[in-house]
Amino acid sequence: MITLTNVRKEYNSDVAIGPVNLEIPSGGITALVGPNGAGKSTLLTMIGRLLSMDAGEVKVAQHDISKTKSKDLAKIISILRQENHFVTKLTVRQLVGFGRFPYSQGRLNEEDEKIISKYIDFFRLTELEDRYLDQLSGGQRQRAYVAMVLSQETEYVLLDEPLNNLDMEHSVQMMKHLKDAAHQFGRTIIIVLHDINFAARYGDYICAVKNGQIYAFGTADEIMKDDLLTDIFNTKVQVIEGPNGLIADYH
Fold first, then answer.
1. Could you write out the three-class secondary structure of 102-147?
2. N or C: which end of the chain has fewer CB within 10 A?
3. Cα Rg for the chain, rounded, in angstroms?
4. Do residues 81 and 160 touch, judged by C-beta distance below 8 A?
5. Rounded distance between C-alpha atoms, residue 193 and residue 33, angstroms
6. Residues paired with 218 in a beta bridge
């Protein structure tokens, strides 16, 4: 479980996140949704200790992230930010291998190589593992980045808008991979999403953020309500029954 207690981040007198009190259950996918500027990515990066808090406490699996050593935290929680600045003259296999650094310190052993291969195969990158990143399509490259994060083999995985710059087909493929990974590997995946319909289709829980506050938390059935979504997104929303579950229709 991830627990946030009175977490707050202040940017100026007019812009602040929190105080946030939240419990994210272990297992499955929890999607962070909300309008632009709501604070979704800020919350995620504070949980991952990439951004400092001005107040409050975050615990991941009972570990206080502000007091846990980095080398220990890297075996509990992993994070993929939106901005990836890896040298493009890396192969897919080399990139995925970076996920093993907390264990190998750059000296990969046979077990590390097996784990790297496992995630390359899982994300259907086997035929591409010797290609350089700049030789890949956007969807292939994003799969490689997520494979790298999963190869860190942490129970908790944080992903900041991994569907950015992906078309519909590749977005669906990515969410299917993540859903399978959460349940097949027993991971807790916290993911920032722009599309409430992806959150409802693939998320086990939805956490709606608005104006730096937690506006609602629950299952798709609990969150996918006309009035609730209209309030969250500041636009008229009608929830209809689609072939694969509830769908939000914006007006």
1. HHHCCCCCHHHHHHHHHHHHHCCCHHHCCCEHHHCCHHHHHHHHHH
2. C
3. 18
4. yes
5. 6
6. 206
